Amino acid sequence: MVINWYPGHMARARKQITQQLKLIDAVIEVLDARIPYSSRNPDISSLIRGKHHIIALNKADLSDCIITDSWIETFKKKFGVKAAPVDAVKGNGIKNLLEFLDEVRNGVSEKRKSKGMLPRPVRVMVLGIPNVGKSKLINRIAGINKVKVENKPGVTRSLSWIRLKNDIELMDTPGLLWPKQNDENVGINLALTGTIRPDIVNMYELSLHLINKLQKIKPEIFKERYGIDICSEAELIFNRIADRRGCLLKGGEVDYDRTSRLILMDFQSGKLGKISLEKPEWFIK
Ligand code: G4P
User: Which residue, of 158, 175, 197, 240, has the fewest CB within 10 Å?
Assistant: First the structure.
């Protein structure tokens, strides 16, 4: 599974983010709720050190709510970071994020006051790897809260800000981070969720990976969705799905391409139900 981020791209992105973060009080880190570990940038903690940190577990409409809640608990208990489930398409969960931002703003204002400084708006940036839903999230937050968009004097011209209610300003372009490299399981999970589209993907192999994962996470799904009895071999399950769904070539041979696409699309579109591919206890002790 090839993740297409080169050292040069990463260095450029890191430089840009580091510069922009100088203007920022708080970061909303966007993760895919189905794969919070795989969709995290590996250097996030060091990149945003000293900033207020909030996590949006986005695409929560597609993740298992119980597992998403346990991620939220884990982020709070182990790292002291507040997280909320979000569906940036429908706008669910945005209110929680705004409440977290209100708390940040109060803290920042108190601190400035104690130093004899005047209050000022709290500046927020949305960060995350490609396709986790950063733009959708910004549009959602802006859509219901925007007061006006203004250019800030003295700040890089290319940056503009969305002024929210309650003295909060959101940078209107998200920070693009790179995914973890050199971890095959991360690459597989990013490809399965459609978060990355690797250059060379063997769809058949990818769907076998999915079948193996589903056998561990939700084995009953094969009966429920495709009406097939569970068996141990992923290849056999694949062939039975092909048979059940009529994904066959002339002569009755399995159409590997069509079957793979069907299984992957069923998962990505939520037709297999709300499924999380990662549980916190697998990664965080
Ligand atoms: P990015 O800025 O982080 O790169 O991500 P972006 O907002 O462009 O979203 C990437 C894809 O994920 C989009 O789908 C978007 O609709 C989808 N998406 C974002 N948030 C959510 C969510 O909470 N739930 C679900 N189910 N999907 C979400 P697309 O097919 O690439 O484009 P389009 O559907 O917007 O045309």
Answer: 158
Distance CA 125, CA 21 (A): 8
Q: Whose CA is nearest to atom 19 of ligand 1?
A: 133
Residue 71 belongs to a domain? yes
85 lines ligand 1 (CB under 6 A): no
Best residue for ligand 1 mutational test, from 39, 136, 140 (most atoms within 8 Å of Cβ): 136
Same domain, 167 and 213: no
pLDDT tens per residue, range 141-177: 987 655 444 555 444 445 688 888 778 999 988 999 9
Residues of the chain where predicted confidence (pLDDT) is lower than 50: 147-149, 153-157
Domain range for 100 is 8-172
pTM: 0.93
Question: For residues 136 and 122, what is the distance between their CA atoms, to the nearest angstrom?
Answer: 21
Tell me, what CATH number does 264's domain have? 1.10.1580.10
Q: What angle do CA 148, 52, 101 make, to 5 degrees?
A: 40
DSSP lists the bridge partners of residue 169 as 123, 163
Mark whether 165 and 206 lie in a shared domain. Answer: no
pLDDT tens readout for residues 22-36? 999 999 999 999 999
Which CATH number fits the domain that encloses residue 19?
3.40.50.300
Helix or strand or coil: residue 44? helix
Residue partners of 275: CB distance under 8 A and separation at least 6: 34, 62, 63, 64, 214, 217, 218, 221, 267
